Amino acid sequence: MVKVTELIVLHTTKVGENSIVIHTLSKEYGRRGFMVRSAGKKSAMTLFQPLSVLEAEIIESSHSNLYTARNLSLKYPLHGIRSSVFKNSMTMFMAEVLYRTVKDGTNEPGLYEWCEKDILLLEAIKSDFSNFHICFLLEFAIALGFSPEPQDIMPFTGEHFPVIERFMKDSFAGSMLIPLSGQVRNEIAEELLRYIEFHTESSLNVNSLKVLRELFS
């Protein structure tokens, strides 16, 4: 059985010489991995960068839970993201958080749509996006169904609570203009990750946060 669907790439795992498993989010399948054969060429690998949005044919199998994806193409070229080392680093962080938090096989209603919206928002912003990943983490908690109030996050935040409360009450545009040092921004991200860890009962060791800390210091 063949279905056409859209996939957001979170992570890839190499399988043999020319195949990979792409770990994705989609409306239909939720968080799921798909086998992609003959994916070893450099030109093909450009499709599978973090948070690429793909259109694909999915071949379902009655003999295996690992379905195959074929005839993949980019739904959006994301030139603004791919041409910026800063935005690319943001997508690495966002994809890693999603990959480590959302359990394989789960399908959170609305999560795909929210994630696609955030990708296109990051693509469209021309400047002042250093705080984007802070807003992403707060919105992610809402997308997962936690809908946190400021007092819910307070136990995880310490001295940064007033700033986080401002993020939660301000508009998105206003949040992007909150002045933060790279160190404080990184500490707030770590605190919000601990909040998400607590509610998802996950252990999140997000390596790409170190990259953001260096770039936005």
- Percentage of residues in helical conformation: 40-55%
Q: Beta-sheet strand percentage?
A: 15-25%
Compute the separation of the termini in Å. 50 Å
- In N-to-C order, the SSE pattern is EEEHEEHHHHHHHHH
Biggest sheet statistics:
5 strands, mixed, barrel
Q: SS-based structural class?
A: alpha+beta
- The Cα radius of gyration reads 18 Å
- Could you report the average pLDDT, rounded to the nearest whole number? 90
Strand order, biggest sheet?
1-2-3-5-4
Please mark out the parts with pLDDT under 50 across 5 or more consecutive residues, or reply none. none
What's the tally of helices?
A: 10
Q: Estimate nothing, just give the exact number of structural domains.
A: 2
- Shape label: globular
Give the beta-strand count. 5
Description:
- With 217 residues, the protein is an alpha+beta fold.
- It has two domains: 2-74, Nucleic acid-binding proteins (OB fold (Dihydrolipoamide Acetyltransferase, E2P)); 79-215, no CATH class.
- The protein is 44% helix and 20% strand.
- It contains ten helices and five strands, in the order E-E-E-H-E-E-H-H-H-H-H-H-H-H-H.
- The longest helix has 19 residues, at 182-200.
- The chain is globular, with a radius of gyration of 18 Å.
